[in-house]
Design a protein that fits this description.
The complex is a heterodimer of chains A (about 160) and B (about 550). Chain A is of the alpha/beta class and about 160 residues long. Chain A contains 6 helices and 8 strands, in the order E-E-E-E-H-H-E-E-H-E-H-E-H-H. An 8-stranded mixed sheet of chain A has the order 2-1-8-7-6-5-4-3. Chain B has 18 helices and 21 strands. In chain B, helix 16 packs across helix 18. In chain B, about 55% of the residues are buried. The chains are: A alpha/beta (about 160), B alpha+beta (about 550).
Chain lengths: ~160, ~550
């Protein structure tokens, strides 16, 4: 899967599938994951789960140490719930694995995603990923603390 | 007032360049209309009936003379020579060219101004009492807290794509002059039993299609927890606010649907988790920001002046202006001076570039180089020595800025209406003119006392009609403009929504209807001290209804 990672375009060895028996490193939509949890534990590949904005992160917080990746699906780019989902997973639940943003994502949202703790971004196909890389450095120093490790203005003053 | 340091300046400069690139991409066809719409709105740019409209932030209504001169320059250089002060203390330009907006923003940045988050579904400009720092009834100056909130909310990564817009207001005084109870979050500075000053926090107030008074979510909270509590509220709202219907997406709908107790419980739980994090504000930061809002160098013997009393005695017009357009100051010998932007024949809240320059000069000369914009769409010079009032009045008169109508019927709040806005059903500006023309006798207006008329061109309520003592809403009936009246609303400490008078009234009858309403007031008031609002609440809407629809 082609994603933005560490401000570069990269490939990650993950696919999203609705089939519980898919092999390899697979991200399953939450309903597939929830219905097949026991079976999925014995898979040989790595396992991740995809949450669309409608499912609260609390649905998976008991399983966080078994999830290598969590995908947050932005249903439409104006729907900002996943920003809070990312913040909660990092801040409240101390999730250390990969956080991948998928769905309808604007070039001009990638820096905000990173600040909320999302480290992998799969930009919508028709949007220019190369161009999106520029967006990370447009606003250099933030006012508010967030889930990334950037120095904030009050620490620099 | 607050002065940017290198970090504040850099943040604003970078935003200008970011927006310039976004505009370029749009003009080059690399950004779809709808995508660009969301981006430009977050920088205050609407596309309206005739042209784009740019809303520039005036954080908590405070301006330096240098900034006002820049606003005047922008009106001249990029617009049709005037600006419009909004009910949220900002300034709007109705005729900028989309291509030149990045240049306007770059010019604004040179005087520490911007249009960041003045529109869009994000945290908007924080507003406050226009008499902050000088009011006699003030518990504490709210401006440092507004500035702290400004910084926290600027480019907040998590809350830039909320279900709907989000407005915050502060008041530090006993009398609410900032319509705090009609904001998504309203904050009052209060003193608790131990004498400590902290915040009382309200949530879920608002006007628009579903007007509602905010409810208390936290009776008292220590100052250091201000941002963590706000962040908790915003997070619950961002997660749970409705996104399926734009008209049901404000936080007021969520609070009403869940009930304040359930909503509070969620907020408190989240707040417990984050309150001891870096969101906690330390004393050093309070001190740093408060240091920008210290008292100016007031003259110690300003009250010894005797010239004011002489002028008041000698000049009736001056005395009328003094009574109506100046306000008590915490320092004896000083007054706060309202600059009326409601001169007859002028759209309420409009100010020309020449007037802006004049006000900037007068603020330098008479009020320490600062001024405020007000929720009622006027301006205030907050610190004028009483001995300077006469000269100031004369200068204001020359620029048509001394109409002695502050707080009167003619001091209307009014949205731009059909003349500019693509949503409006009604030409609010021409109605304002109709009212102005009818009630041009200042003695009559002064005898009436405070009557707040608020008018909106559509149910989105930008003119706050629900909370006018007399509220007027433009409605469309089969292509014809009609006007719906409400009576007895208030946006102050005694906040309440007005009661509907009856069926909507034809356009040409609006001023006549107001006249009838006023007749009922004058014949029913106990005495001259009973205000229109008090009479209205005492006798109810019926007597008015009988007279108007007789």
């Amino acid at each position: 899967m082609k994603v933005i990672k560490d401000h570069k375009i990269d490939n990650i060895d993950w696919e999203i599938s609705e089939q519980a028996n898919t092999e390899g490193n697979v991200i399953f939509p939450y309903h597939v994951y929830a219905e097949n949890k026991e079976v999925l534990r014995s898979r040989s590949g790595k396992t991740g789960v995809l949450l669309n904005g409608d499912t609260a992160v609390e649905a998976i917080t008991d399983d966080l140490d078994q999830l290598d990746i969590i995908a947050l699906e932005f249903p439409v780019y104006v729907d900002g719930r996943c920003f809070s989902h990312a913040s909660l997973l990092r801040g409240a639940y101390n999730y250390q694995g990969d956080l991948l943003a998928v769905g309808d994502i604007l070039r001009d949202q990638v820096a905000q995603m990173e600040r909320c703790g999302i480290n992998l971004i799969k930009l919508t196909e028709h949007r220019n990923a190369e161009d999106a890389l520029k967006a990370f450095t447009e606003l250099s120093t933030p006012y508010q603390s967030s889930e990334d490790q950037q120095k904030i203005i009050s620490e620099l003053r | 007032m607050y002065q940017y340091d290198q970090y504040d300046q850099k943040a604003v400069d970078e935003r200008v360049e970011q927006y310039r690139e976004q505009t370029k991409r749009f003009l080059a066809g690399e950004l779809e209309d709808e995508e660009f719409r969301h981006l430009r709105l977050r920088n205050g740019l609407y596309i309206q009936t005739h042209a784009p409209m740019l809303r520039v932030a005036i954080p908590y209504g405070t301006l330096a003379s240098k900034q006002l001169r820049m606003l005047a320059y922008i009106a001249r250089e990029y617009d049709k020579d005037y600006g419009h002060i909004s009910t949220r203390q900002n300034i709007q330009y109705n005729w900028p060219e989309l291509e030149r907006v990045p240049d306007i923003l770059a010019d604004l940045a040179t005087v520490q101004m911007h249009a960041i988050q003045t529109s869009g579904n994000c945290i908007r400009n924080t507003t406050t009492d226009h008499l902050a720092g000088v009011a006699q009834d003030e518990i504490e100056d709210p401006r440092p807290y507004c500035e702290i909130v400004r910084q926290w909310s600027t480019f907040h990564p998590e809350f830039n794509w909320l279900p709907r817009k989000f407005k915050i207001a502060f008041s530090g005084a006993e009398n609410d002059r900032a319509a705090v109870q009609f904001h998504d979050i309203g904050v009052y500075l209060i003193k608790n039993d131990k004498g400590e000053v902290g915040f009382k926090i309200l949530v879920g107030g608002g006007l628009g299609r579903m007007p509602i008074v905010g409810v208390v979510i936290k009776e008292f909270i220590e100052k250091k927890h201000l941002l963590s509590y706000m962040e908790a509220i915003l997070r619950i709202y961002n997660l749970e606010g409705r996104r399926d219907n734009i008209h049901r997406a404000r936080i007021k709908v969520l609070v009403k649907a869940q009930g304040i107790d359930v909503f509070r419980e969620k907020v408190e739980k989240e707040w417990e988790r984050i309150k001891s994090s870096v969101l906690q504000i330390d004393q050093k930061e309070f001190d740093r920001v408060s240091a920008f809002f210290t008292e100016p160098d007031y003259e110690k013997n300003a009250a010894e002046d005797t010239s004011l009393a002489e002028k008041l005695e000698a000049d009736k017009a001056f005395s009328r202006w003094y009574k109506q357009n100046t306000y008590a100051h915490k320092i004896e010998g000083y007054r706060a001076v309202y600059i009326s932007l409601k001169a007859p024949g002028v759209a309420p809240g409009d100010i020309t570039s020449t007037q802006m320059d004049a006000v900037a000069d007068l603020s330098d000369q008479y009020s320490f180089g600062e001024l405020r914009t007000t929720h009622d769409q006027n301006m205030v010079l907050t610190d004028v020595k009483q001995s300077d009032l006469y000269a100031l009045w004369q200068a204001l008169q020359e620029h048509l800025l001394a109409t002695a109508n502050i707080g009167t019927l003619n001091d209307m709040i009014c949205c731009p209406g059909l003349d500019f806005c693509s949503l409006a059903n009604a030409s609010s500006i021409s109605i304002a003119k109709q009212i102005n023309d009818k009630f041009d006798d200042l003695d009559y207006l002064h005898d009436l006392g405070p009557v707040k008329v608020k008018m909106s061109g559509c149910m989105n309520a930008c003119g706050h009609h629900h909370v006018g003592h007399i509220g007027i809403l433009g409605v469309d009936k089969k292509g014809v403009e009609f006007y719906q009246f409400t009576l007895g609303g208030s946006a102050e400490t005694d906040s309440r929504l007005g009661d509907r008078l009856g069926p909507a009234i034809a356009k040409e009858k609006v001023a006549d209807t107001i006249e009838k309403i006023l007749e009922v007031y004058l014949s029913n008031r106990h005495n001259e001290d009973e205000t229109f609002l008090q009479t209205c609440l005492r006798i109810g809407v019926e007597p008015f209804k009988e007279r108007v629809y007789a």
